[in-house]
Specification:
The protein has nine helices and eight strands. The longest helix has 17 residues, at 13-29. Helix content is 39%, strand content 15%. By secondary structure, the chain is α/β, with parallel strands linked by helices. It has helices spanning 13-29, 73-78, 89-93, 99-111, 124-128, 131-140, 170-181, 196-203, 220-236; strands spanning 2-6, 35-39, 53-54, 83-86, 115-120, 152-156, 188-191, 210-213.
Length: 239
């Protein structure tokens, strides 16, 4: 399993250090074998991880340069960052990144050998238009994306479920992940109002290889609870 915590624009550097201390101690004490990734804000990338990966929520596809407000490869390398989140719905719908920009970012960081957690998903209006429309919308988010990239992790996040408390039915998640599995052998994560109460149930679904968690992972103890649920699933299936 792969469990990711996306802090978004939350937590200070001090709060992140305290959070990481709790999660890393839990992972160590419970001999967790799953991949755990935390995406803190830029200001907290200076953590020296022990058994939890630190990823960056965004990066500009250049080594360095005159790109005000951005963070580039040179700065990420200073922190030893080798994992990046690309295509998150908030970058698409709030910041306004186009698929062309997202694809350029993907290509650049793939060339640098980063682990890429690539996000796709649809707004509610698209889902309500029917399965064919929804799949066509998601297909457009694969334009310029190498689905055979060996360090790709694909995250499905229905936009209408992020931060709303709403989630698709288990049957809907399985159907969508089954369609994604036909396109790539990369690990498939589910995101969108994942929380302690439903994480284990979601991770037990077919073709779900983990979760990408937002606000519900801001509590270190809650995130550790989800990690424990994944470990329990591993025990049940004999991994």
């Amino acid at each position: 399993m792969i469990l990711c915590a996306n802090f978004k624009a939350n937590k200070t550097r001090q709060e992140t250090r305290a959070y990481m201390a709790v999660v890393e101690s839990f992972v160590s004490a419970n001999d967790i074998s799953d991949t755990i990734i935390v995406f803190p804000p830029f200001t907290a990338l200076d953590h020296d991880p022990r058994n939890v990966l630190i990823g960056v929520q965004n990066g500009y596809p250049v080594i360095n340069g005159a790109y005000t407000g951005e963070i580039a490869l040179e700065q990420l390398e200073e922190f030893g960052i080798r994992t990046i989140l690309i295509g998150h719905s908030e970058r698409r719908h709030v910041i306004g990144e186009t698929q062309e920009q997202i694809a350029a970012k993907f290509q650049f960081f793939a060339e640098q050998g980063f682990v890429i957690v690539y996000c796709v998903g649809e707004p509610l209006s698209v889902r309500e238009a029917g399965n064919d429309v929804m799949m066509g919308y998601i297909e457009q988010q694969f334009e310029g994306i190498d689905l055979s990239y060996p360090d790709l992790i694909l995250a499905y996040e229905p936009v209408w479920a992020i931060g709303t408390g709403l989630t698709p039915s288990n049957e809907d998640i399985e159907a969508l992940h089954s369609a994604l599995r036909a396109k790539t052998s990369a690990p498939l994560l589910y995101g969108g109002s994942v929380k302690v109460e439903n994480a284990g149930e979601i991770m037990a679904l077919d073709n779900v290889d983990g979760v990408l968690v937002g606000s519900a992972a801001l509590s270190a103890n809650d995130f550790c609870d989800m990690i424990a649920q994944a470990a329990e699933l591993n025990t049940e299936i004999g991994e």
